Amino acid sequence: MAPTWASLQEQFFERFGQEPDSIWQSPGRINLIGDHTDYQGGLALPIAVPYSTWVLGRMRADQTIRVYSDYGQEEIHIQIPSMRSLAQNRPLRGLAGFVMAAWDLLRCEQGMDLLIVSTLPVATGLSSSASLSLGLLATMAEIMGQSVPQEQMIALARMIENEYLGVNSGILDPLAIAKGRANSALLVDALLQDARPVPFDYAQNGMSLWIIDTQTPRTLAASEYDKRVWETQEASRMLGVANLRDANGQSIERLADPVLRARARHVIRENQRVEWTVEAAQDGDWDRVKSLFWASHQSLSQDFMVSTAVLDQTVEWLQEMGIGARLTGAGFGGSVVALAYLGQGEDITRRLTQAYCEKGWHSPIFLEVRSPAEGLHKLTYERTQ
Ligand code: GLA
Question: Which end of the chain has less Cβ packing within 10 Å, N or C?
Answer without folding.
Answer: N
